[in-house]
UniProtKB/TrEMBL annotation:
Cofactors (names): Mg(2+)
Single Gene Ontology MF annotation: metal ion binding
Protein name (database record): Glucose-1-phosphate thymidylyltransferase
Highest taxon in the source lineage: Bacteria
Enzyme Commission no: 2.7.7.24
Organism: Aristophania vespae
Enzyme class: transferase
Length: 293
């Protein structure tokens, strides 16, 4: 499986902060926003990742992330000239995917949950269909909304409905089989002028091939695309890391735990940031591993 990390858009909901920089490069506490969905993809066991961003922002992402070797993965970069919809990512990446199954993560989404790796691996290993992750919110009209029957089977998906049928929002993390590009090619722009990811998911739903993984109590999903949620995300990460000493959204830690990088690479990465609390936490992880494993 390959993965797309979509980090384009103009970030208009975060102006003026995003007039000069991509929102996915803004800090969420002590790390760039893009580190959080990148960590999720690494925890899914995916090593080949395409980062799609704007032509203007591409050099900054390349400077930050490089070729991916620091995380034991391989990055490919593509540009999206203008934000014509999330599902456009599959058209941009079609030749690179070459009929491989694919995960798609939005660059402004943070997911933190106990047992998340198990859910991710289940979605990764599913041979056909699509998997989306749903989370209860109080403002579902901002998102794609999914409704269920009494048995928990998905009934419908609506994009930003004025009168939501439920409060279960579809998060910015999706897993698809190798038919996804074929389906994306059949999409037509919505009234908003975009190729909607909701319309792509509806295709799988109509074929009875849409799987929904619920993120319930004990899970946190934050869409850091507006000032309030950006602040909430930073506060959440700060609270977890300072109270529990547990890293949140560290692709280096995830790469080490997945076996993508060695203990020596983990320590070297920590030493490059030894003056920061993040670097110190990575070094403590290396010391703890040596002591207990």
């Amino acid at each position: 499986m390959k993965a797309i990390l979509l980090s384009g858009g103009s970030g208009t909901r975060l102006h003026p902060m995003t007039l000069a920089i991509s929102k996915q490069l803004l800090p969420v506490f002590d790390k760039p926003m893009i580190y959080y969905p990148l960590t999720t993809l690494i925890l899914s066991g995916i090593k080949e990742i395409m980062i799609i961003t704007t032509p203007h922002d591409l050099p900054q992402f390349q400077k930050l992330l490089g070729d991916g070797s620091q995380f034991g993965v391989e990055f490919t970069y593509r540009t999206q000239a203008k934000p014509d919809g999330i599902a456009q990512a599959f058209l941009i990446a079609a030749d690179w995917l070459n009929n491989a199954p694919c995960a798609l993560a939005l660059g402004d989404n943070l997911i933190f949950a106990d047992g998340l790796s198990t859910k991710l691996q289940t979605a990764h290993d599913r041979e056909s269909g699509a998997t989306v992750f749903a989370y209860q919110v109080k403002d579902p009209q901002r998102y794609g909304v999914i409704s269920f029957d009494e048995t928990g089977k998905a009934l419908s998906i609506e994009e930003k409905p004025e009168h939501p049928s439920s409060n279960w929002a579809v998060t910015g993390l999706y897993f698809y089989d190798n038919k996804v590009c074929e389906k994306a090619e059949k999409l037509r722009p919505s009234p908003r002028g975009e190729l909607e990811i909701t319309d792509l998911n509806k295709m799988y739903l109509e074929e009875d091939k849409l799987h929904v993984s619920l993120l319930g109590r004990g899970c946190a999903w934050l869409d850091a695309g507006i000032p309030d949620s950006l602040m909430q995300a930073g506060t959440f990460v700060q609270a977890i890391q300072s109270r529990q000493g547990m890293l949140v959204g560290s692709p280096t830690e995830a790469a080490f735990r997945m076996g993508f990088i060695s203990l020596e690479q983990l320590r070297a990465r920590g030493e490059t940031m030894a003056k920061t609390e993040l670097g110190k936490m990575l070094l403590r992880l290396a010391d703890t591993h040596e002591r207990f494993f």
